[in-house]
Amino acid sequence: MTMEKFIKHTGTGVPLRRSNVDTDQIIPAVYLKRVTRNGFEDGLFSAWRNDPEFVLNKDEYKGGTVLVAGPEFGTGSSREHAVWALQNYGFKAVISSRFADIFRGNSLKGGLLTVILPQEAVEAIWQAVEAAPSTAITVDLDTRTVSYNDVSVPFELDDYTRWRLMEGLDDIGLTLKHTDSIDVFESKRAAYKPTTLPIRI
Amino acid sequence: MGKTLAEKIWDDHIVRQAEGEPDLLYIDLQLVHEVTSAQAFDGLRLAGRKVRRPDLTIATEDHNTPTLDILKPIADPVSKLQIDTLRNNAKEFGIRIHSLGDADQGVVHVVGPQLGITQPGMTIVCGDSHTSTHGAFGAIAFGIGTSEVEHVLATQTLPSRRPKTMAINVEGSLKPGVTAKDIILAIIAQIGTGGGQGYIIEYRGSAIRELSMEGRMTVCNMSIEAGARAGLIAPDQKTFDYILGKPHAPEDFAAAQSYWETLFTDSDAKLDVEITLDANTLEPFVTWGTNPGQGLPLNASVPNPADIADSEERGAAERALEYMGLTAGTPLKKIAIDTVFLGSCTNGRIEDLRAAASVIEGKKIAPKLRMLVVPGSERVRQQAMKEGLDKVFLDFGAEWRNAGCSMCLGMNPDQLAVGERSASTSNRNFEGRQGKGGRTHLVSPLVAAATAIRGTLSSPADL
Ligand code: SF4
After folding, report:
1. Nearest by CB: B36 against A1, A80, A105
2. B140 near B123, Cβ under 8 Å?
């Protein structure tokens, strides 16, 4: 899949003060029966959205595009639907002090920028957006900083992933440039390695 | 300097390495199921790409399939569309598929090992986080997202960053009634749901060596619940014996085995972290909260959040108790259970069914309790019936179902109702995992069986 380039995004924040938000919460299994990549916004955090006090239900956070979450965001199931649901809803970036590995991998493949900041910095953003929900937050991949009000916090992202996101490059296309290396590798694979075909019962 | 087991396997699969880029890793096997593959095949079609190695790919239906009336058309049209989509994609791209009614239909992570296509030294991926299960054979096996599923279908490779290695040494011998499930629940309670993040965990020590292959799969299965990318165990004679005679065991077994025998962590290898756990003191474990790290020995009581120093964890515990409808200080053994679920890729293998059956044989199920027994695969179901286990479960008062993921994730009709409480041999106790508003306690098959008899969380020792 090709994706949109991500260079810089400015939007308002949504403070999700919860840790261990697993992908079953982000998008419950009953929504996973669809065979498309879009339309998952209705399932996003569906169990919590019944609660009028849940942050996404509050008018002041309705147009938010930067989710600011507690630690261990995205644990559990590998479902990429979690990334799609966040994107379908309108989120462009998620900030947390810790992301689960698979979720982070999925997000960076799909162009949802997951930004790791120290917990103190997350706490400060929570306080800023709770005090003033219209606070503009800028996530800048070029300078690798998150800024709001007069605060600017640097974050780390490896050069390769950053380059891919900024160029909007398709991973598969990149790998297919190295088909020769794959051919060479395959020619040396051990003969005893199993195959699924032909079927041996 | 020597290498760790994970490093050896990783290095053997590097197709291409370049400064600043992730390693391009060759993938020996991809397992496919209906839920995370449709969008990947669509991507291939859109780009006009083929599956590079259909012969290193295998599909099964599991997450979404019914466990009753499996030969009738699937009642839920959305589920049916997803299953039909997988069948059509398998046909179009030439991939072997095991559909409902087939002997090798079942949960992906039960199917691979039972066919003998899960072997030491392999790299195995699947669009499912519990792919870590296959690490029990000394393979690097990990879950991936749908974009990566597409990537592997198209190229048989995956750009990946080399993880660090954490060794968890479980030394000593388990007491009777304590199982592989209790080991892994205790590990996760100790290191936390993020404790393994960025690592491949290698499980070692005498207690791990003593486990059967099924037990080792249970341990590796839940590595992801500790946040680890994968978990693995060095192969040994037990591993080789398990594979020998399976349909896809290597024809040149000797050649394969001589390679497999090189797969262990060298004594001078550098491990990034090492943790030790005493198997002698372990007790049956059970979770009380809404993440797999919130677990305690069965003899303990529901913890008091006020006693937790870390404010983040305290808040999480308060929320968990509220969701679970539990009061601090209640002995875990006093918690009454509505439903017992025996199954899943964690504990739905033949050995798990045998263990539970041995506890309930000749007994009756607690009044008003329901028990679902869902074999991990059709082959497991057939084997169990050959041994008469289906009769043991039915006589006891349990339901004997067809194979699939079932109530592990509640995607098919097998779900908990709002407020319903389960003791489940699966791997996730997240809010709503087994059905919206459902409350899950993770347990071993032995605890599940004893709980079904007494109606409250129990171990066989309580009978
Ligand atoms: S049994 Fe549960 S954990 Fe295992 S693959 Fe199925 S849904 Fe996932």
Report:
1. A80
2. yes
Sign of the alpha-carbon dihedral angle for A26, B432, B231, B16: negative
Q: Among candidates B175, B169, B199, which has minimal Cα distance to B187?
A: B169
Structure tokens, B291: 């993440």
Of the candidates B442, B439, B401, the one whose C-alpha atom is nearest the C-alpha of residue B418 is B439
Query: What separation in Å is there between the alpha carbon of A190 and the centre of ligand 1?
Result: 31
CB of B62 less than 8 A from some CB of A: no
CB-nearest partner of B147 from A80, A101, A191: A80
Q: What is the mean pLDDT of chain A?
A: 95
Q: Mind telling me how many Å the CA of A72 is from chain B's nearest CA?
A: 7
Residue B17 φ/ψ region, left for φ over 0, alpha for ψ in the -120 to 50 degree band, beta for the rest: beta
Residues of A in contact with B159 (CB under 8 A): 171, 174-175
The per-residue DSSP string of B126-143 comes to: ESSGGGGGGGGGS-EEEE
ipTM of the complex: 0.94
- The confidence score (pLDDT) of residue A2 equals 59
User: Residue B241: how many CB atoms within 10 A of its CB?
Assistant: 10
Closest Cα to residue B310, out of B321, B318, B299, B302? B318
Q: B32-63: per-residue pLDDT in tens?
A: 999 999 999 999 999 999 999 999 999 999 99
The answer to whether A65 and A129 are in contact (CB under 8 A) is: no
Q: Per-residue pLDDT tens for B244-269?
A: 999 999 999 999 999 999 999 999 99
Please state, in angstroms and rounded to a whole number, the distance separating the CA atoms of residues B423 and A23: 22
Q: For A123, list phi and psi in degrees, rounded to 5.
A: -60, -45
CB B127 within 8 A of CB B145: yes
Which residues in chain B are contacts of A43 at CB distance < 8 A? none
Say if CB B26 and CB A175 are below 8 A apart.
Answer: no
pLDDT less than 50: residues of chain B: none
